[in-house]
Amino acid sequence: CHADLGFKFKAGGNKITMAKIIDGKFCGACHNGEVAWSVENCAMCHSGIPGTPTHIHGSTLQRLVAPVYRPLEDRPAAAGG
Fold first, then answer.
1. Vertex 42, ends 36 and 43: CA angle to 5°?
2. By C-alpha distance, which of 51, 72, 71, 48 is closest to 60?
3. What three-state secondary structure class fits 2?
4. What per-residue confidence (pLDDT) applies to 27?
5. Distant-in-sequence, close-in-space partners of 50: CB < 8 Å, separation ≥ 6
6. Nearest 5°: CA angle at 49, between 10 and 69?
7. What are phi and psi of 44, to 5 degrees?
8. Would you say 61 and 45 are in contact if contact means Cβ atoms under 8 Å apart?
9. pLDDT tens, residue by residue, 18-55
10. Any residues with CB less than 8 A from the CB of 61 and at least 6 apart, and which?
11. Which residue, 13, 50, 54, 55, could crosslink 8 as a Cys pair with Cβ 3.0–4.6 Å?
């Protein structure tokens, strides 16, 4: 859907503002609480952490779909041998 709406998947490429979203443009076209979760749930898509890649990296949704990668050597050993 996002590509069909003409989103440019580049930081700053869409000139999105909250006013446009509330008017039903960009995210607000679907994220209205009826078609998809409402715009009040920003953390579902946006991490709010400066410097993270565009799209949903670091967001609540991304952590649910694909947890943060940790190399095997960084993981705790399995219990019981």
1. 110
2. 48
3. coil
4. 82
5. none
6. 85
7. -65, -30
8. yes
9. 788 889 888 888 888 888 888 777 777 676 677 766 55
10. 44, 45
11. 13
Share of the chain above pLDDT 90, in %: 0
Cα dihedral 42→39→5→49 (10° resolution): -10
Say if residues 21 and 39 touch (Cβ distance below 8 Å).
yes
Residue 71 has pLDDT above 80, yes or no: no
- Token pair belonging to 2: 């996002």
Enter the DSSP assignment of 6: T
Per-residue DSSP letters for 19-69?
Answer: HHHHTT-GGGGTTTTTSS--TT-GGGT----TT--STTTTSHHHHHHSPPP
Burial of 27 (0-12, 13-18, 19+ CB in 10 A): buried
Q: Round to whole Å and give the CA distance between 2 and 49.
A: 22
pTM of the entire predicted model: 0.47
